[in-house]
Design a protein that fits this description.
With 472 residues, the chain is an alpha+beta fold. Helices cover 55% and strands 13% of the residues. It has helices at 5-42, 55-79, 83-87, 95-131, 153-164, 207-210, 237-243, 305-319, 332-337, 341-375, 377-385, 390-424, 436-462, 465-469, and strands at residues 141-144, 169-175, 186-191, 194-202, 215-218, 232-236, 252-255, 258-266, 281-284, 295-300, 329-331. The strands form 2 sheets. Strands 3, 4, 5, 6, 7, 8 and 9 form a 7-stranded mixed beta sheet that branches. Strands 2-10-1-11 form a 4-stranded antiparallel beta sheet.
């Protein structure tokens, strides 16, 4: 009817622009509704309509860019059909367009498979972190966040004795640090002429008992040994390995111009979490080179936590009068649990991304299946007339999609393997890369593809062949 190709291209681009504009409004609405959850998940305070976000000029630019990317190819293809062929009923496009459609579908499922595998492996690593023995017990331990300086055991003794009188309190200790992922300070210490830089933690009696740290050999500090407050130390297994000491108990380690006697070896415990290896550490009650002890830890009996905390809060001005601050505390298991926060956030992001990419891939697959099925409606009718069963037709329609999803898995597996392996390498303590997530991702995507295509194919299979062929 006289329309030029430029006019048709403009019309198609205009239609796509309107679709993208409506999509942008919906996207902003969804983003606004999801923002509180996002802010809570990442502990931030973002606002979409903050003028600093520059959305007022960025949104129109993004809208035009998406319209151009999404609309240019279909607009040029649709405006390029030869009218004579179309009016004869030949709506098929070139092999190049078929390759593009197949390629886009494979690409969508490849991204979905990567996210599915990543989600499985993140879940497996987090489960490993939650179920592994930490080497110490943080449950029922309260960390009191007050800053009095207890640089000598006798200075802390009155505070400890008052806290122990509270009903439900099992043990009390103080140290220069708590197992919350923070690093301890260190100095150079010498054993048998070998000097190494090693962490040092200044502790009090009952430190190991309060945290349920296990003893490998020797003994822990005891008030029955007067030398423990002067020149006795306990080292961990990593320190033994770093120095290469054989039979460490009874040997001498020199640092800060003091000769310390090793009285025990503590088993390693993951004070820095799973991302860092256990650091070689020396524990001593006297450390002239270190900071004063300020971290009080109180172990409380189960089912008596509330009453004990209430008593601690009420009696704190009398327990520690020189501090002059309000009673502030935190549960040690919650404090240590913050080391998992980043990985839990990543897990949530991957879960949402996996759902979104699967949903988008299924949408594309559904549209592609409808297009293919409509294009083969006459072929399906002829096959049914010639005696093909419904199962055979379902296999025929699903076969090409099955192959494409399988190809998507094969393409994405090496990428997912490299990415997840690099992520796991950020942990000193990690799982071995499992095979199950790769097999599961293939099973999930193939099942979703077969179900989606079969829903669309069912209409063609159940249709009356006469309706498709009667005009012939």
């Amino acid at each position: 009817m006289g329309a030029y190709r430029f006019q048709l291209t403009t019309q198609f681009l205009t239609e796509i622009f309107i679709q993208c504009f409506v999509a942008t409004i919906l996207a902003l609405t969804i983003a606004e509704l999801a923002l509180p959850y996002f802010n809570n998940l990442f502990q931030v305070n973002l606002s979409i309509w903050n003028i600093e976000n520059n959305l007022f000029w960025q949104l129109p630019l993004i809208l035009c860019l998406i319209t151009f990317v999404a609309g240019t190819y279909p607009a040029l293809v649709l405006s390029g059909f030869k009218p004579a062929l179309v009016l004869k009923g030949n709506f098929s496009t070139s092999k190049q367009s078929s390759w593009l459609r197949n390629g886009l579908l494979i690409f969508q499922f490849s991204i979905a498979v990567i996210f599915i595998i990543g989600l499985f492996i993140i879940n497996a690593q987090l489960k490993y972190m939650r179920t592994q023995d930490l080497g110490f017990t943080a449950n029922q331990v309260v960390y009191i966040k007050n800053i009095s300086l207890f640089n000598k055991p006798e200075k802390f003794a009155p505070v400890r004795d008052k806290i122990l009188k509270i009903q439900g309190v099992k043990s009390v200790t103080v140290a220069t640090g708590v197992p919350d992922g923070s690093e301890n300070g260190g100095n150079g210490y010498t054993v048998n002429g070998v000097q190494k830089s090693i962490d040092f933690v200044d502790v009090d009696f009952d430190y190991f008992e309060t945290l349920d740290i296990k003893l490998k050999e020797g003994r822990f500090f005891s008030r029955s040994f007067s030398t423990d407050t002067a020149n006795s130390v306990v080292i961990n297994e990593s320190a033994v390995a770093k120095y290469g000491i054989k039979n460490p108990v009874g040997q001498t380690i020199r640092g800060c111009n003091i000769d310390y006697k090793i009285v025990g070896v503590a088993k390693d415990f993951k004070a820095q979490g799973f991302e860092s290896a256990v650091q070689p550490t020396i524990y001593a009650i006297k450390n002239p080179c270190g900071n004063s002890k300020t971290q009080i830890m109180v172990k409380i009996e189960e089912n008596k936590m509330a009453d004990a905390l209430a008593a601690l809060k009420a009696q704190w001005p009398q327990i520690n009068p020189q501090d002059g601050e309000d009673f502030r505390y935190e549960f040690l298991d919650e404090l240590y649990g913050k080391l998992f926060k980043k990985q839990e956030q990543l897990q949530s992001v991957f879960f949402a991304a996996a759902l979104l990419t699967i949903f988008i891939a299924i949408l594309g697959l559904f549209a592609f299946a409808k297009y293919i099925t409509n294009g083969r409606i006459k072929e399906i009718a002829v096959r049914k007339i010639l005696g093909a069963s419904d199962i055979q037709i379902f296999k025929l329609i699903n076969s090409s999609f099955f192959i494409m999803v399988l190809v998507a898995n094969v393409i994405s597996w090496p990428v997912a393997y490299i990415l997840t392996k690099k992520w796991l390498e950020t942990f000193a303590y990690r799982i071995d890369l499992p095979v199950l997530p790769f097999v599961s991702s293939a099973t999930i995507t193939i099942l979703l593809a077969v179900i989606t295509v079969s829903i669309q194919a069912k209409k063609a299979v159940k249709a009356n062949p006469v309706d498709a062929l009667k005009y012939e």
